[in-house]
Sequence to fold (756 residues):
Amino acid sequence: MSTSDLPTRETSQPYLSQRLVLLTFIAGIFVSAALLFAVQPMFTKMVLPRLGGAASVWSVAMVFFQTTLLAGYAYAHLLTRFVPGRVSIVIHLVVLAVACFTLPLHIATGWGRPPQVGEAFWLLGLFTVSIGLPFFALSANGPLLQAWFVRTGHRDAKDPYFLYAASNVGSFLALLAYPLVVEPFVRLGDQAWLWTAGYYLLIALVVGCGFVMLRAPSQMSGATVSETVATAPPSWLDAAIWIALAAIPSGLLIAVTAHISTDVAAVPLFWTVPLAIYLLTFVIVFQTRPFIPHWLAVALQPACVLFLVIAVLMIPIESIILQIAIHLGVFFVCALMCHGELARRRPPPQFLTSYYMWISFGGMVGGILTGLIAPQVFNRIIEYPLLVILTLMCRPGLRLPTKGDGQYLLLIAIAVVAVVVIGLMAADVRFETPIYALTVGFLLGLIVKFWRAPLSFAAIVAMLFVMNHYNTSATSNYLVRNFFGVLNVVEATDGRFRVLYHGTTAQGAQRIRDRSGTLLSGRPDMVSEFHDGGGFAQVVDAVEKRVGGPANMAVIGLGTGALACRGGAGTTVTFYEIDADVARIARDPTLFSYISECAPNTRIVIGDARLTLADAPDGAYDVLFVDAFIGAAIPVHLLTREALELYFRKLKPNGVIAMHISNRNLELASVVAGVAQANGAMVRIYDGGDLQEDPDEHRWIPTIAVVARNDADFGVLAKSELWPIRERDPFQRVWTDDYSNIVGSLLRQWQRRSGN
Fold:
């Protein structure tokens, strides 16, 4: 049979039927993609409180999603290759039907509290058992339905990649709709039922797509026009390039999302926006005529990366909103460039399922390397700049330099300088500021010459990152990276204080030397936010005066353990801390001696406070401190109506809750006022009064919100003008386990800082 003898769309089916075929497949692919990506933030939000609201939860979740996506793509590829036609439809419908037994979506029984080690693998197991089957079934729909479409004989079947763009449109819209439309107005339980209804609708659409394929004349002929043309299959080199071009932006997606979530809060909004941008790049590059041409993305990428280096790393911007915009803008251009190269190298339609499978494999590789392996290999978060550098090497024109070439000499010189700088860092030797500035200026000047050379440009940017790290790093007494972030104990430049950092945020300090440089011993001085006369001291004093003796205190958030030294003789403190490494640091007297000197038998309960505090006896504490919000990222589930209800159950009848709500990015006082009123309580806020901060003495002024059932429970605080009552804003919705508004809190803090 010749090509001309094959039935075509124009000769075998009327125009209306062609439209019906196309709409059926577009609807099936669109709904499948929307469900696939709506479930990701929805189910991750269900799981988030089990691990303290850590930003790493989403990183590990993305590894699960990418791995399961690969499994679905591989299943679609094998099904299309070995059992095409009617049998493939039956098999896939059976898989979809079996997945219905796991609905509505919920956390599987038996997965209560995570372990203290291996949290990432525990999380992968939870996702697999809870939503593995329906997510796998959905993952296969995209490539499988496109392969079925190729067999319909439709006039567009010769280049079906536009359906991949349609798939990503569905994903993109679902991701944007979740934080903006679904999450604020629909409870999680109701979201699960709505998602289930959408899943049943999808099954009906898949049945329709299968019926259309079986009715198509081209299916009876066994091949489409494009399949009769002899074409060499993609080589292993082609597959390797596809994997690399997919892995690098996939890893960058996880890295930039973790960076943003760590600086603000681990909430669906900051998961879905980067993922939506990632999918948008696929939508653009797989259009027949992309509205952002590939050449433009290639030209813009170096300038964007250079702007990231200068504007964010060398001249830090304080506005968190502007920082997020810069990071996401650079990520968009880098991902667009990589995916443009990927689209430019796509094979003919008969190799469509294998192409998607290799792309998915690359996505999984990028996710595993960034989400699982990097935290184990690197003790600092260097995968983000590393991935930015690798995107520069994905630009067209990459080649290895030859001897005598200017690039060859440049790369040797950069390698030598990098070794020298790393050696100086290890020896704690610093350049003088003029030398550092001159070196950075020289590197920026080299960029002008090597702007169009991908390898050389990437090497220069890498050196700029190294120089920035060299300029900002400090001598570390203790450095560890775990599931919850990077913990670093460093000494201040004058050697008088030792400070605990979680990421870039100080979590506490201790004075270790006096002004003459003499080492101090004995009971530590109270510094940081815990100094005499500060908000913490006033709360403890007021509670002990009201109860007429030592208080029984609970503290959520350990830090350096300084609150163990706050209070009189007989005062007891129980700390609730999710990070076991923080407990090791606080108990180590060579690092911080608050606990060892003041309360060596202090009880530290490891685990998420919402889970572990629930086991404490009701009515046990006089005061409960929630000291978990000073970092850049906050655990939202500790600041909800339900959380406050739990806290009150653990207090004595006249006990109070004191929340440390100092935060550089978020306004939280109005949030506390809202959840307090929802529990029939009232709030007083302290923001420093007439005290002054003293950075040289590590003396900071905390913002404290004290919540009590009635005014008498505040004790002497009720008589102080420094502790005014904060009323609830009637225009703000109360935060619950099903609702929070991080964007509103961000904007309120921004307005407050700008004086509006």
Remarks:
- The radius of gyration is 29 Å.
